[in-house]
Specification:
This protein is of the alpha/beta class and about 220 residues long. The protein is built from 8 helices and 6 strands, in the order βαααααβαβαβαββ. The protein has a 6-stranded parallel sheet, with helices on both faces.
């Protein structure tokens, strides 16, 4: 079980996909729905379409474009939000999240969503889950034009939100994003070991990790 000193934490920055919400929706959308739609539009085999899509993903991995629905709509000439809505029933909050966020609120922590998700995707997911009711502020990195993998983002977010990075906990399922937060000097870091409920739990050695937030409840103060 992760050992976090909650008395040294005032602010909790939370990722969305894979951290608050089940990553299965996004994995299914980007790895299945988009390639199938691309194959149909371009007259490709599914195998060829998937190879093309994965190469396009790799080319912008970690950049704001990777997370930008407008970028993919333009690149692929596909109605991205329309396709998302077709499978929106798969959007779900992690079952361990409500109790975790309620406990954090009761302990007086400031709770801020910090997501690379496009604002339209964020709106759809709030519409489906209402997880925003637990949070003090919602921030999409698209407001800044750079992703959480960039030090520029962290500098701007710290300036605008005014948190003390030494007394801030950041929770994310992406190791590369956690690495960027560590480089910036965020004092407390927590990785999510099981972001996708349909995939095996990952072994994470770089950071403290959690697979069920409810294991943290007895020690939150």
């Amino acid at each position: 079980m992760p050992m976090l000193n909650w008395s040294n934490i005032d602010t909790v920055l939370l990722d969305m996909d894979g951290t608050l919400l089940d990553l299965h929706f996004d994995n299914h959308f980007f790895l299945d729905v988009v390639p199938k739609a691309h194959a149909k539009r371009q007259g490709l085999t599914l195998e060829a379409a998937r190879a093309d899509i994965l190469a396009r993903y790799d080319a912008v991995m970690g950049q704001i474009e990777w997370y930008c629905l407008d970028y993919w709509q333009e690149q692929l000439q596909l109605p991205i939000m329309e396709l998302k809505r077709e499978v929106q029933h798969l959007i779900s909050i992690r079952e361990d999240v409500p109790a975790f966020l309620e406990a954090l609120r009761e302990s007086g922590k400031q709770l801020i969503l910090l997501t690379n998700a496009h604002p339209n995707s964020l709106s759809l997911k709030i519409e489906r889950t209402q997880f925003d009711k637990y949070l003090d502020k919602l921030v999409s990195t698209h407001e800044y034009g750079v992703s959480k993998e960039s030090q520029m983002l962290w500098q701007q977010v710290e300036r605008d939100l005014g948190f003390d990075k030494s007394r801030t906990l950041f929770v994310d399922d992406s190791i590369s994003v956690l690495n960027a937060a560590q480089e910036f000097g965020i004092g407390h870091l927590l990785a999510v070991a099981n972001p996708d409920s349909r995939q095996p739990e990952r072994e994470i050695t770089e950071y403290l990790s959690v697979s069920d937030y409810r294991t943290l409840l007895p020690i939150i103060d």
